[in-house]
Amino acid sequence: MVETIPKDTSKKLDKHLRKFEECRKELGKMGFILTGSIVKRFMRCGKESCRCMSDPMFKHGPYYEWTRKVKGKTVSVRLTEEDANILAEWIKNKKRFYEIISKMERITLDALKEIRS
Ligand SMILES: [Zn+2]
To answer: What separation in Å is there between the alpha carbon of 60 and the centre of ligand 1?
Structure first.
């Protein structure tokens, strides 16, 4: 048997629609979204005469990289600290984007329960 969704459901859905609308507003304000992660590294250059080879506490850096998988391979891009901070925000946005989408789907399921109860 195919169950039909009743047509006059607007009142029942109001509170769910309000929650849904909040999510939509947050999505609307969201900036760029980016895949990957930001890595901060300190390195030894390998030159025998360099302090980084004689002093265990000394390394060059910090260096910032944006790393991500492209067709199964890790790709890294060197960044300035300033750009690293910007890209970190965009990566955070992507995580938040998926959180919001999941929330919207939960709200939708709640709404569906409501109109079928
Ligand atoms: Zn060095």
So the answer is: 6
